[in-house]
Write a structure and sequence with these properties.
- InterPro entries: Antitox_Xre, Xre-like_HTH, Xre/MbcA/ParS-like_toxin-bd.
- This is DUF2384 domain-containing protein.
- The protein has helices at about 10-25, 30-40, 40-50, 55-60, 65-75, 80-100, 105-115, 125, 130-145.
- Helix 6 (about 80-100) crosses helix 7 (about 105-115) and helix 6 runs parallel beside helix 9 (about 130-145).
- It is mainly alpha-helical.
- The protein contains 9 helices and no strands.
- The chain has one domain (about 15-145).
- The termini are far apart.
């Protein structure tokens, strides 16, 4: 007699909320909108650096935030709206990449930092600085999750 042991997997929706809670941002809705308009707190950036495994300078490069500006935001404690929007976009893409690789943060990080054929050989992390680029990355992730490669 064989007894099958099923593994328990946290549903993606619950994993997603854990991710957003861990970096200190609401995932959606009015509270996210309000947070963006008030200015994302600087600690969200430091948490995202830690979770993603990226160097602070590298993440700032992908967010198009010069080093001097990053230092000013650290002192002020908040990002401006446009900077926070790019920070949120990075977090959203990184979260979706983690989901694509079934929770493997290292694989998600590697995927973001390397050329991807589905993006014309561009690195996903380099495309996050614009909403159109981030949308293209998220679209590709969605297609990969559903097995649509064309």
């Amino acid at each position: 007699m064989h007894t099958q042991i099923n593994e328990f997997h946290v549903p993606k929706s619950a994993q997603g909320e854990d991710f957003w809670l861990s970096i200190g941002l609401p995932s959606r809705g009015a509270s996210l909108h309000e947070t963006l308009h008030q200015g994302i707190p600087f600690h969200v950036y430091t948490k995202l650096v830690a979770i993603s495994g990226l160097e602070s300078k590298k993440l700032a490069k992908y967010l198009v935030i010069p080093p001097a500006t990053l230092q000013r935001r650290a002192k002020a404690g908040r990002f401006k709206v446009d900077e926070g929007d790019r920070l949120y976009r990075f977090a959203e893409v990184y979260k979706c990449a983690i989901d694509l690789f079934e929770g493997d943060k290292e694989q998600a990080r590697k995927w973001l930092l390397n050329p991807v054929r589905g993006l014309g050989g561009k690195h996903p992390a380099d495309m996050i600085s614009t909403s159109a680029g981030a949308e293209a990355v998220l679209d590709l992730i969605g297609r990969l999750e559903h097995g649509v490669f064309a």
